[in-house]
Amino acid sequence: MFARSWRLAALTLLAAAVALPALAHGMAGKDAAFVAASSGPQIIPFIYLGAKHMVTGYDHLLFILGMVFFLYRLKHVALYVTLFSIGHSITLLTGVLSNIHVNPYLVDAVIGLSVAYKAFDNLGGFKTVFGMQPNTKVAVLGFGLVHGFGLATKLQALKLSPDGLIANMISFNVGVEMGQLLALSVILALIIWWRKRPGFSRQAVIANAVILTAGFLLMEYQLAGFFTQKGV
Q1: What's residue 25's pLDDT?
Q2: What is the DSSP letter of 127?
Q3: Separation CA 120–CA 122 (nearest Å)
Q4: pLDDT value of position 161
Q5: Which residues touch 21 (CB under 8 Å, ≥6 apart)?
Q6: Contact 120/126 with Cβ under 8 angstroms?
Q7: Which of 107, 128, 174, 221 is deepest in the core (most CB within 10 A)?
Q8: From CA 35, how far away is CA 46, in angstroms rounded?
Q9: Which helix (H) or strand (E) holds 2?
Q10: Rounded to whole angstroms, how far apart are CA atoms 166 and 164?
């Protein structure tokens, strides 16, 4: 019964991975209108928007899930989450405040690749296929830098007002960190519970295969958008 439920869950996650790219997590509606019209420091609203953006950012969440999937000690979780946070904080703030623009499709394609990379790493793919193991800490920091640019592109698309920009971007980044901690708490609670269930090792392979597939689907979707855009 449990095995059947797990297969259904895996298929549901895979179906969601196919559908989610169409629901891109860039700001829209009232949030986008508020940010575009904002002038002067708006500390609390930007903290809220940062947290909301992180907890609804399926690509960021998939990477975090892959990152902590096989971390069993809290100090290791703290280390990798800190490296990821340092990376995306640097490029989020630098990208917006220094007006550094990168193509959003290509950034999001690399973010999709980061999801696939971590799942492939979790499956032991590098040792099995290439006979080597990349430095995971460096990879997490590097992909954190990319994820930060992904966040920056969403904000840059809204033509932010320079009035209060520094305060608002710092507030947004604080919100991102708060949202990440909230999401991480839920993810860790579920994984700790899951590890105690029978058959976790086998199910973990299936789960990471699904995450790997989702990462490549996200990357493919964004690359299709990039080449379609270039062709227009």
Answers
A1: 55
A2: I
A3: 5
A4: 86
A5: 217, 218, 221, 222
A6: yes
A7: 107
A8: 8
A9: helix 2-19
A10: 6
CA dist., res. 9 & res. 14, Å (int): 9
Predicted local confidence at residue 23, as pLDDT: 44
CA 232 to chain centre: 28
Q: CA 172: distance to chain centroid? A: 16
The first and second tokens of residue 66, run together, are: 């892959």
Q: Which tokens sit at 15?
A: 């179906």
**Which conformational region is residue 118 in: left (phi greater than 0), alpha (psi within -120 to 50 degrees), or beta?**
alpha
Could you identify the residue written with the tokens 């990462």? 215
DSSP letter string, 20-82: GGGG--S--HHHHHHHHH--S--HHHHHHHHHHHHHT-HHHHHHHHHHHTT--SHHHHHHHHH
What's the one-letter identity of residue 35?
Answer: V
What tens digit of pLDDT does each residue of 173-200 get?
A: 999 999 999 999 999 999 999 999 998 9
What are the structure tokens assigned to 110, written together? Answer: 């690399």
Burial of 185 (0-12, 13-18, 19+ CB in 10 A): exposed
Confidence of residue 158 (pLDDT cuts 50, 70, 90): confident
d(CA 61, CA 154): 17
